[in-house]
Amino acid sequence: MRRTSSDRERTRTVLRYLLVAAYLFAGYVHVHTPHFFMPVMPGWVPYPRETIVGTGLCEIAGAIGLLIPRIRKFAAIMLSLYAVCVFPANIKHMLDFAHGSGSAIGWLYHAPRMLFQPVIVWWTLFSGGLIAWPFAKLQRQP
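The structure assignment produced for this chain is given below.
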């Protein structure tokens, strides 16, 4: 079965709205409960509380940007870079858990979370219209 351009765009739109919902939720949680994320912050990050709130605001702005066609690609690039930049905090969170009193449920969260980070980067770029892989080659428009 061959996917048509309209199928790909429908998939892109559905994934975009799911991503927007996820980033809006994550942004809200970062802004309204920054204390929850304080233990995850690497010690070398200056102003950790303000950084957490700032990342939440970036998530919200990026989610809104994905909804605006004129800036969608820029928002997708920035959210992809954001996902790469927060990866050290995710690694710290996993390592702190591994050295602490880890339970099986914790590994059920941490292992998929670490493996899913590249998917988030792909998902953001695909949703923003920057890549079409694996569905098809991206058609350049004049």
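Interim note for the steering committee: The radius of gyration is 17 Å. The mean pLDDT is 85.
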